[in-house]
Amino acid sequence: MSLQAKLDAFKADFEAGKPPYNVPPAVIEIMHRATAELVASGAAQRAKKAGDVAPAFSLRDPDGNIVNSAGLLKRGPLVLSFYRGVWCPYCNMELQALEAAKPEFDKYGASLVAISPQTAPNSRKSVRQNKLSFPILSDVKGQIGDAFGLRFHLPDYLVELYKQLKNDLPTFNDDPSWTLPMPARYVIGQDGVILYSEVNPDYTRRPEPEDMIAVLQQAAAVKA
């Protein structure tokens, strides 16, 4: 089953109010409203895209080690995923799909890295729960997400809903701003130029990991 098919199946159960979430229709309406407004804002079109130079980053992994984009790109192209946090089931399914695709990325010498604004303990939880072999980096205060044009402020009514649901982003992220990145996937060439971009203002939509393979093949052919 494709990643998007799995996400769609989860979304159907979630929005039908099935266990374990048991979400009432009023909550779904608020989430739909927030997504529709973010889509309509055009924020995704203003984010970094293919052909742009990717912002450089130097971030810590869950063990406190510094991981920087320059070092990764010396070894090969970079597959980069921005996600919301360990609390987001759609993000966790995406991370699992990326892990499954990692052997294919490895064939082309590509590094795979995920970035989230969450704290290191939550990143360790992401790695553990999803059985990941690639690093999750903590984007403190969302600075790198902002540099890529992905960071947005949650509307007040969504903040109130998240508080009711005990979805405490300031604690998850050690940041009082109530901001998140739009989920995004990039492939960055060794020269730092973005070869592929997919930015999703609708967090229930994610590209297939297999979509990266053709881009990595092209990058390898150019290098050869």
TrEMBL record:
InterPro entries per the UniProt record, alphabetical: AhpC/TSA, Peroxiredoxin_BCP/PrxQ, Thioredoxin-like_sf, Thioredoxin_domain
What domain of life is recorded for the organism?
A: Bacteria
Identify one Pfam family in the record: AhpC-TSA
According to the entry, every stretch annotated as the Thioredoxin domain falls at: 48-221
Q: For this protein, what is the EC number?
A: 1.11.1.24
Reactions listed under catalytic activity: a hydroperoxide + [thioredoxin]-dithiol = an alcohol + [thioredoxin]-disulfide + H2O
Q: Answer yes or no on keyword Oxidoreductase.
A: yes
Q: Sorted alphabetically, which PROSITE patterns does this protein's record hold?
A: THIOREDOXIN_2 (PS51352)
SUPFAM superfamilies given in the database record: Thioredoxin-like
Q: Which keywords does this Swiss-Prot/TrEMBL entry list? A: Antioxidant, Disulfide bond, Oxidoreductase, Peroxidase, Redox-active center
Q: What does this protein do?
A: Thiol-specific peroxidase that catalyzes the reduction of hydrogen peroxide and organic hydroperoxides to water and alcohols, respectively. Plays a role in cell protection against oxidative stress by detoxifying peroxides and as sensor of hydrogen peroxide-mediated signaling events.
Which PANTHER family does the annotation name?
SLL1159 PROTEIN, THIOREDOXIN-DEPENDENT PEROXIDE REDUCTASE
Say which family it is in. Belongs to the peroxiredoxin family. BCP/PrxQ subfamily.
Protein name, as recorded: thioredoxin-dependent peroxiredoxin
